[in-house]
Amino acid sequence: MMATFISSSQIDEAVTAVKQQTNQQPTIGLVLGSGLGGLADAISTPDVISSATIPHWPTSTVAGHHGRLVIGSLQGKTVLVLQGRSHYYEGYSMSQITLPVRVMHRLGVNTMIVTNAAGGINPVFKPGDIMVIRDHLNLPGMAGHNPLRGPNDDSAGPRFPDMTQPYDPHLRQTAHAIAAELGFTLQEGVYSYVAGPSYETPAELHFLSSIGADAVGMSTVPSVVVARHAGMRVVGFSTITNMAVPNPAPGTVLTHEEVLETGKIVIPRLTALIQALIERLSR
Ligand code: HPA
Fold first, then answer.
1. Residue 242 is among the residues annotated as catalytic for this protein
2. Coil vs helix vs strand at 111
3. pLDDT, mean over the chain
4. Probe target for ligand 1 pocket from 87, 137, 199, 253, with the most ligand atoms within 8 Å of CB
5. Four-CA torsion 244, 186, 124, 213, nearest 10 degrees
6. Given pLDDT bands bounded at 50, 70 and 90, which one contains residue 245?
7. How far, in Å, from the CA of 165 to the mean position of ligand 1?
8. Averaged over 191-212, what is the pLDDT?
9. Cα 233 to the chain's mean position, in Å?
10. Is 20 helix (H, G, I), strand (E, B) or coil?
């Protein structure tokens, strides 16, 4: 099957649909993962836009993901919250699942905050920890499934974008300082992106551990690659919802419900962290 590449004029059509439903001009974008959608409730003067009203938008089919955009005010800044992202494993193309990032960028967003649920590979981690992402392993991307594959829009970004610093060092440092003020230790590490939807086998986890992964998950990285291509500043947080270890206790099985449950417990902490981070961002 041919990959579906979203064209610049299709992105424009999506942007137009959003602009018809809000007059607010966001500069900060939040992309929230499984079970972490609650942050949007803290937004004042929200314009809520159903993703079903936006042409070319990939609608999510996963439990725990609402498909909507909430644009409004948070800590004195205008933010756009994307509730419910779509994933490659749902059958969309890389270009389709990253359309929301292109749209955010054209609306004026210059800083993207991403969250996700991830399995903890680093043995120091515990379920309920939050990891700020230092770097990523784009395994599907390295195997040819990169969201930038296909025609390059030179006005959006370069054909061969630099990825030496995908996650902003200053924002990472600020996040550590805020976590310390809030009284918890923020973990930091490498997020390895896998396409899913099956969870990893013991041999796959052994492999991921040996190549330097601290956590594993099925999202975020395509969005980050596109955001960096467009020159946006990125900070990412993984909620460690379960341990992803090659030798689990006998009888241990991993379910999406467990991932959602642990995700819920971390919400207050992650909400406080992100709110404080937004407060300290320059406009
Ligand atoms: N593996 C992949 N994705 C995940 C996991 C995991 O263990 N937990 C949450 N998302």
1. yes
2. strand
3. 91
4. 199
5. 50
6. confident
7. 24
8. 96
9. 13
10. coil
Rounded distance, CA 91 to CA 86, Å?
9
Mean pLDDT of 90-109: 95
Q: Which architecture does CATH list for 24-281?
A: 3-Layer(aba) Sandwich (3.40)
From 13, 42, 90, 146, the catalytic residue: 90
Reported as a pLDDT band with limits 50, 70 and 90, residue 62 is low
Angstrom distance (rounded) from CA 262 to CA 269: 12
CA–CA separation, 23 and 245 (whole Å): 47
The verdict on whether omega for the bond into residue 197 sits within 30 degrees of 0, i.e. cis, is yes
For residue 242 and ligand 1, the question of a CB distance below 6 A is answered with: yes
Question: In sequence order, which ranges of 20-120 are alpha helices (DSSP H)?
Answer: 94-97, 99-107
Identify the three-state secondary structure at position 173: helix
Q: Does the beta carbon of 243 sit less than 6 angstroms from any atom of ligand 1?
A: no
CB atoms within 10 A of CB 251: 5
Query: How many other C-beta atoms can be found within 10 angstroms of the C-beta atom of residue 147?
Result: 26
Average pLDDT over residues 188-200: 96
The pTM (predicted TM-score) of the whole model is 0.93
Contacts of 254 (CB under 8 A, 6+ apart): 119, 199, 242, 244
CA distance 208 to 214: 8
pLDDT score recorded for residue 246: 81
Q: Is the CB of 125 under 6 A from ligand 1?
A: no
Strand partners, 71: 47, 80
- What is the spatial distance between Cα 124 and Cα 11, in angstroms, rounded to a whole number? 42
How far apart CA 174 and CA 281 sit, in angstroms, is 10
